[in-house]
């Protein structure tokens, strides 16, 4: 073999080795608005470890936390178009895209977190996961998000009358907008990343969220009044881009789906611990937590239910959720 062809052979061998390495691992890009360490972020990382083990290193997941890939509404579009492989988002921003997601997002639809877990783990959850497929997405799993409650920079809220005229930031979803407006307050839909400064500058009087978000986004530094009205128990969703999904073999699709399901168990453990920790942090920081009579809020939701339970299918979904033990 000439010197030249030896070199060529070596180069080719090295090249194919590189290609081999490149083929060995496909890194799926996953988006999350929350910071590193947040239960949703850690759950998707855990799912990535499971996938890596179960595919012998052919697939793994890189979680881009802290909204590095954009705010939730944008990342949903990017996931639909295949730019992002996986997206962990609240169900809220999907309400205008996948009508079925409006049902579990309705205020006071779930009686408790246990009720939500039970329903989302069963046939209703499966039906909603399936509904994403008509929108270029594959629904993989639901995660916990506790209960959302109002908080504000102005005053303690003891009754529905105190909400009147107050300006609350909500998720970019008409369900959320209509909920706040039905309570006599004013809704301002806004991306999550803009809420802190909007609270600080007084563009809004308050927002609404669960303990871990209220704490990790530091909203509690400016909003010192938290009202335990627990108006929504909205699950989080993990979706995959249909385009990315279609690149997987059927065997790998099964592995990804199962790993997502397995990560739910882990997420719930992390969630339960984080809720307590976050509540503790904000209370120690001087946030005043007030109780409120929920019944007038529940009663005010009648027009919101009528608007979103607009077809026999959606009514049936709501009835099945409510009937579940
Ligand atoms: C959180 C949720 C986020 C985001 C945020 C918001 O509870 O985990 O995905 O939707 O609420 O209010 O925008």
TrEMBL record:
Residues 1-24 form the signal peptide. Keywords: Receptor, Signal. SUPFAM superfamilies: Periplasmic binding protein-like II. It comes from the Bacteria. Pfam families: DctP. CDD domains: PBP2_TRAP_SBP_like_3 (cd13671). PANTHER family: DICARBOXYLATE-BINDING PERIPLASMIC PROTEIN, PTHR33376. This is Tripartite ATP-independent transporter DctP family solute receptor. It comes from Mesorhizobium shonense. The lineage of its organism: Bacteria, Pseudomonadati, Pseudomonadota, Alphaproteobacteria, Hyphomicrobiales.
